[in-house]
Amino acid sequence: MSVELIPRWQRRLFAWFINRQVRRASARTHCPVCRAAAPTIQLHPDLLWEAVVECPQCGHVASLPSFLSPLPKSEEEQFAELEEVVPQPPGTQIRAEDTGSGRRWQIPAKGGWNVLIGFSLVWLAFLVFMCFGFVSQSEPGNAIFFGCAFGAAGLGMLYFGLMASRAYHVIEVTPSELVHTRHFLGHAKRKSLVRDSIQTVKLVVFYEQNYKPIHGIEIVAGRRKIRFGSLLTPKEKAWLCQDLRRVLGLKQPLADTLAVPSRDADETGGGKLVMEHGPGHAVVQAQSRALSNTLLGVGTAFVCISSIMLWGGGSMWMPWEEGALVFFLLFNGFILFWCTGVSTFLLIGLATLTFGWRLRRTTKMLHADRTSLTLISTCDRRVIKHVWNVADVARMAVEAGAKVNGVPVYHGVIVLRERAVTFGAGSDHPMLRQAIRLLAETMGRQEAVRQ
């Protein structure tokens, strides 16, 4: 989304929040080329994520997300990008067997405790204490409200924690389909994909833990997906992923070298990307979906939770009593401090909610020819247009920007002298690479598509 389409008050709020996060991550900011420490970054409200950062050591120019990517690649990431054959790890508890007409893998339950189980038990214990306090003060209404609202969240966390610890998986490939069955607490959930429709089996990032990406296995067939295996070891994930590809007859992921057709479109759940080209020109039209949906969800959650907390804080306001001045000031001062902090989160939630709503209705169109690059951003009745000379383009690439549940959301980026233009957040990664290649070739650039 173009920054100019965002109200100025939201830009100031986002600038404060992003600058705060950048300062906290300053120890991990580095040049993606020479790995030198990045300069001190202070975003201006008029640029935000479109700001361009230049490395003081090698002069490399890139967008802000490039300087915030992690430095060393973990074992998990190295196996995720490995093209070589990975043997079955010794000592693995995964049981693989040929069935005559296919192959079956059984992944045992991990067992033990995890963070979700421990946190949910503490959450529920605190909730019981709070509800008991409300009942003892003859406030059953508050006990029922808090018990239902926060009890559902605690039980949900406990359920997912137990599932991660106690569920085991069975994957079976037959001549006609791939079947994934999850067994948990005596219940089996079965999901199948038609074998001939399976397009990819690969390792993708499921979430982050201690700032490191955790991969899992993703099997894609059209719009349907099967995802599992995030708790396996890196070697087990790489071996199982390659074994699945071998049995299904899929090749290893190859570099995207296909020519772009005269018109191609990607309308996955993550985003919409349409490419067209003709004699001497190319057009890329992009609309984000995954990021906007996530922002709408996060904004709604912030607003709801902050509103409940404000209501709870207001209901705890202590009335004036004779002879209790000190306690009155201390207690109500804490309530004011509490409500001020919660109000900040409410404001951030409202800004995120409205930003997600605007992003969902925003469309970007990039038009390229031999001499110029034109960007037209539209949101409802507002239209923003920029025109640059081809010589102003410093770099073009596909980068990972925002993350959804720890999973990087890729987007195309065109780095200019004064700003970085992003498009297609959440679109399919190979399609973004094709879009960058199409624009670069139309402008007469030999662009090495990164990522």
UniProtKB/TrEMBL annotation:
Transmembrane segments: 113-135, 141-162, 295-318, 324-357
Pfam families with a match to the protein in the record: DUF2244 (PF10003)
Keywords: Membrane, Transmembrane, Transmembrane helix
Coiled coil: none
Matches recorded under InterPro entries: DUF2244_TM
Name of the protein described by the UniProt record: Integral membrane protein DUF2244
Organism: Roseimicrobium gellanilyticum
